[in-house]
Amino acid sequence: MSRAWISAILGLLATSSVWAVEVHEVRLWRAPDHTRIVFDLTGPSDHKLIVLTNPGRIVLDMENTSLKANLANLKLDNTPVARIRSGVREGDDLRVVLEVNASVDPRSFALKANEKAGDRLVLDLYDKQAKSAAVKKSVKQSSKRDIIIAIDAGHGGEDPGALGPRRLREKDVVLAIAKELNALLKADKGFQPTMIRSGDYYVSLKGRRDLARRRQADLFVSIHADAFKRKEANGASVYALSTRGATSTAARYLAQRENSADLVGGVSLSDKDDVLAGVLADLSMTSTLDTSLKLGSKVLRNVDTVAKLHKNNVEQAGFAVLKSPDIPSILVETGFISNPSESKKLATRSYQKKMARAIHRGIKDWFLDHPPSGTLIAWQKQQGGRQYTIARGDTLSAIAQRFNVSLSDLKSRNSISGSRIVVGQRLTIPTT
Predict the structure, then answer these.
(1) What are phi and psi of 79, to 5 degrees?
(2) What gap in Å lies between CA 208 and CA 320, rounded to an integer?
(3) 56: Cβ–Cβ under 8 A, 6 or more apart, which residues?
(4) Are both 298 and 168 inside the same structural domain?
(5) Which of 174, 241, 427, 428 is within CB 3.0–4.6 Å of 385 for a Cys-Cys bond?
(6) In CATH, what number is assigned to the domain containing residue 419?
(7) Which stretch of 11-15, 16-20, 24-28, 103-107 has the lowest confidence by average pLDDT?
């Protein structure tokens, strides 16, 4: 065989290897306001997005790409997508057609490969909702309003967070704890929890802050599970925002890891410096950060009753998700999912409930002492009433008898439906 023929064959092989980008998996998640479809690729691929009407279709053309994944496995229930089909276009391009039965605003972007995942093409279908003509009254202006707690389960969707033994995913653990915390706060009179993420879908770090602000939250609490390259690392932690750098190397490392979640979701933080600088300036002029630190300490002291602490004080670092200028914000690391012993605990329903109860006690204790003005709790405090901290051996009936109040009034004043009380819990004794 001549040298010319060998060169031609090698050139052809090289060309075909460049040509053969494959879609090896397709994943779909439904969020409250949009549907996300992720195409996992073996390499980068240029694409074009086309919107067609009558009937509604979203067309995605990917150059030099073939489909190996099975689109029929996608669950389209509760999404605007009625059907997905594919075909070959112009010999070597892939065309994916999504037939939609609702009005959507499609957006697409490519994600480069990183240490967590390969090349991906992301298609977001945002729901188009009719604007309501009614003007809602501000929640925070209402008389005797509830204290609003925004509960943020970290990660979600294509971002699993940290991975523990047996493929335990951070996003699943923290969502379970968040749901437990939500249920506890729902049962408390004077408190109104709101879930930032209630299912397995992705929300950007800025989007989490924005949701909390739109819902006029009095507190933003983000729940996570820590991870480190050394399996020996262990313990729970509570973090607040730092305006001057991290308080420790570990805090800096964790902030960098958690902030990288937006890279998974296709959002870069590199162009937000001016905005964040303004946010930090606002924080320095308000009591938001101070409140975050003090409230975080309350939560940390309660977490200490159910878990070993990684740090004995509230740590600080530049967490993007905590950068709200007007909402006290904390991040709770419930343990190290990378530690075999703690991972085993984090996977259990009983430990998830214990952790949720500890976070709940810390939040409730703070707001009973420092209720925002205009809230039911603030109004109740203005009516007078002594505070009592439950000690070992106490019962509700004995406390009621000691302070010469009825048991029903004591339970009603403290939003207690049953008879269960916890050592360290604070009660307000109603006036007689």
Answers:
(1) -120, 165
(2) 10
(3) 99, 100, 101, 102, 103, 104
(4) yes
(5) 428
(6) 3.10.350.10
(7) 11-15
The neighbour count for residue 378, using CB atoms within 10 Å, is: 17
Number of domains in the chain: 3
Residue pointed to by tokens 């279908």: 125
Segment 390-411 shows an average pLDDT of 86
| Calpha distance 312→166 (Å, rounded) | 30
Specify the 3-state DSSP secondary structure of 317: strand
pLDDT higher at 415 or 156: 156
What is the sign of the dihedral through the CA atoms of 57, 61, 62 and 65? positive
Confirm if 29 and 202 have CB atoms less than 8 A apart.
yes
Residue pair 388/363 in contact by the 8 Å Cβ criterion: no
Q: What percent of the chain has pLDDT over 70?
A: 80
Q: Which of 16-25, 232-241, 344-353 is predicted most confidently?
A: 344-353
228 and 348 fall within a common domain: yes
Residue 282 is predicted with a pLDDT of 46
pLDDT band per the 50, 70, 90 thresholds, residue 277: very low
Q: Which domain holds residue 156?
A: 139-369
**Cα–Cα dist 263/185, whole Å:** 32
Query: By C-alpha distance, which of 151, 217, 148, 146 is closest to 377?
Result: 146
Mark whether 34 and 90 lie in a shared domain: yes
Residue 356 CA: distances (Å) to CA of 177, 224, 314, 333? 6, 12, 18, 12
Task: Note the pLDDT of residue 263.
Answer: 55
Mean per-residue pLDDT, 177-201: 94
Describe the strand order of the beta sheet including 47-52 as a list of residue ranges. Answer: 47-52, 57-62, 93-100, 81-89
Distance (Å, whole) CA 170 – CA 333: 11
